[in-house]
Design goal:
366 residues; alpha/beta; seven-stranded mixed beta sheet; four-stranded antiparallel beta sheet; 38% helix
Length: 366
């Protein structure tokens, strides 16, 4: 019998599927826990904006209709928000869709993509799926991007560079001086993918907003999402801002009606809810301060984070993850990201954070 993997690209056949955080429902089925806490997937613990929920309710009677395939009103809203032309905005089913489409557009066997080790798992998946060579740069200190090393790895066959800022799963950032130095070294034939899914949470004044460096020469694609600060992870909506010619290419290869009607109206409404955004930032800042202080009290090392999650060193990461599961707390083990001694903890509501710390202390015997 012919095996399907024998007919696929070898780079694809060798891939391991992306493994998301364990769903609450799965933990309930497996262990019978009634009130689990999920702090595994960097979701907004406040949920979506009430305005987004109302917009979804209002749109429900029209679910027999296909959505606007061009996502015009959403793209118009995003363009006004960032003060760019609508022709520079691409709406997507989550920013992950853009990453995959960029790989499809610009990579093939013989070409390569550069990214940092310990960065978002979709970068190697998208590269391998297109048959491209994966060039993985060492980090500066085991956690942060080394932009100088990444720039040095670029050659005539490089088409994409993926940069997570803040980086998932470490929460680290590169700052403006490093970014400017990197831009000066990158050849014009390379598409720079600035993945800024967590940018709203950054408080460092030296953080570089990649949109400030868009021009008609550089091939910069800035990725943003509604899954994090806007609390809309369940309906999958994100976007890219780039030169108009890149947007045109993305439009040629996207699926028809790639952004659902509910996602479009919810994202538009959520952007207007400044109070919900402010509350999310407050909850995250206070929660991060608490998790850092309690990690210090427990004697646990962590990576200072600029996002809405904390990478904590716990010894045997998978063992601690499993012990926490049995206490009804879901975090993310980091073996797949090359950190077997760590878990990644999303910032939750105050009571969720307290429950996590209590369970972690018990799991660690401290």
């Amino acid at each position: 019998m012919i095996k399907a993997q024998d007919l696929a690209l070898p780079s694809v056949a060798a891939l391991a599927p992306y493994e998301p955080g364990k769903p609450i429902e799965e933990l309930q089925r497996e262990l019978g826990i009634d009130d689990p806490v999920k702090l595994a997937s960097n979701e907004n613990p406040l949920g979506p904006s009430p305005r987004a929920i109302e917009a979804i309710k209002a749109a429900l009677p029209e679910l027999n209709r296909y959505p606007d395939g061009a996502s015009y009103e959403l793209r118009k809203k995003i363009a006004a928000y960032h003060k760019v032309g609508i022709e520079r905005v691409f709406a997507a089913s989550g920013s992950v869709e853009v990453i995959n489409l960029l790989g499809f557009l610009f990579l093939r066997p013989g070409l390569n993509a550069v990214y940092s080790e310990h960065s978002f798992a979709i970068y190697p998946l998208a590269t391998a799926a297109a048959g491209g060579e994966r060039r993985v740069a060492k980090t500066l200190d085991g956690y942060a991007h080394d932009l100088d090393t990444m720039a040095a790895m670029i050659d005539a066959n490089t088409r994409l560079v993926f940069l997570g800022n803040p980086n998932n799963p470490t929460g680290t950032i590169y700052r403006r001086a490093e970014w400017k130095r990197f831009l000066a070294r990158v050849p014009e034939h390379v598409v720079i993918v600035a993945d800024e899914a967590y940018f709203e949470f950054v408080r460092d004044p030296e953080y570089p907003d990649s949109l400030d460096d868009h021009d008609d020469r550089r091939l910069i694609v800035t990725l943003r999402t509604f899954s994090k600060i806007f609390g809309l992870a369940g309906i999958r909506v994100g976007y890219a801002v780039a030169r108009a010619d890149i947007i045109q290419m993305l439009d040629k290869v996207r699926q028809p009606f790639n952004v659902t009607s509910l996602a479009q109206v919810a994202a538009i409404a959520g952007m207007d809810d400044k109070a919900h955004i402010a509350r999310t930032l407050q909850v995250n800042a206070e929660g991060m301060d608490y998790l850092e202080a309690e990690s210090r009290r427990l004697g646990l090392a962590f990576v200072p984070s600029h996002a809405n999650f904390l990478l904590v060193e716990v010894g045997d990461g998978h063992s601690i993850y499993d012990r926490l599961l049995r206490k009804g707390v879901i975090v993310r083990p980091m073996n797949g990201y090359g950190y077997p001694r760590h878990v990644r903890i999303s910032v939750g509501l105050p009571e969720e954070n307290r429950r996590l710390i209590a369970a972690l202390g018990e799991a660690m015997g401290r």
